[in-house]
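From the shared-data thread, chain only:
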Amino acid sequence: MKPIQVGLLGIGTVGSGTFNVLRRNQEEIRRRAGRGIEITMVADLDTARAQAVVGEGVQVVGDARAVIANPGIDIVVELIGGYGIARQLVLEAIEAGKHVVTANKALLAVHGTEIFAAAHRKGVMVAFEAAVAGGIPIIKALREGLTANSIQWVAGIINGTTNFILSEMRDKGLDFDVVLKEAQRLGYAEADPTFDIEGVDAAHKVTLMSAIAFGIPVQFDKAHVEGITKLAAQDIRYAEQLGYRIKLLGITKRTAKGVELRVHPSLVPAKRLIANVEGAMNAVMVSADAVGTTLYYGKGAGSEPTASAVIADLVDITRLHTADAAQRVPHLAFHPEAILANEGDLPVLPMGEVVTSYYLRLRVADEAGVLAKVTGIVAALGISIDAVLQREASEGENQTDLIILTHDCVESRMNDAIAQMQALPTVLAPITRIRKEELN
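Structure, as tokens:
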């Protein structure tokens, strides 16, 4: 049988990894797919560098539209990134009747509804395993492996840069700014790390997982997003003393009122496996009714781990290339009609309606009655306290840290409590609030 012909848009880190792994393992991949898969055309602005990567026998062009226009190309792999030209090229490839593979989580989180609808109309596939958690096959697990289950929640460490920074802060007791510079020097963080450290990258990924887990449209604009820039070394130290570790989590949860969709630093019990995921590694926990809790762990980025996911998508499309479009696995696990019906029944909740528990750190005057005033405010709002840790003031100082752990309460009530505590003259600095996730 004639090999499937693949056109690659962009041959940077992931593109070169995809080309090399596909060439290295071509025989095994052919045996799995039932026919060969060949990258026969590559588009890249730096044509000389691209030609050096792929060698002879592969056509290299500077215009991505030349790949889309080639009638011999069956699958277009988009590895350009971003929201702009990538969106236009993906839509043009779909309109031309090409299947699409992409690692572009930002594109799908923001424009996924439009892209999947276009693909559905044209009867082509858009595969995106590489868009979430690199080499970890979490999309396939959610979309296919857990089909029998009603999924209750998904929580993941899905950004390696922030996990590396938090691991270094814990291990070395350093502040965020110091560790960020080290992460940039080592290549774990970009020169402009905003998308990573502010939680945007993780929010793109958890938006996609939420849509697949619960059968709702992709709704990145409704996600609550916080990064790690305001975390201090003492918070990580206090968390450790209380039996927790701080991780940036992407969380989506089904509740009676709707779906939670949020990214923020979280205290996680140190005994949880996910709390012990260190460095630039990723991990995703899924809780479902039939299977219980499952954990998926591995490299969330890098040339060949991400290429592994891209090629897995190529194999899936190759297997289903001639199948009736109606019999393929839907892009977001649920049939499009079911997703539209679910949107009203499962709205994304505003953060004020989310229920969770909290870690609070207050910098307070070291004088009598401070603890009573603070706990009085909390009690008056019906918030139950789990634990209190009051540090002794250092010699010669007249202020100290007061740490409070709470039981579950609705976020809007905690917002009121923080506002009232902040107004106390004995609270000397902005209150630090970190949500606590037991993940049990």
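DSSP finds 16 helices and 17 strands in the chain.
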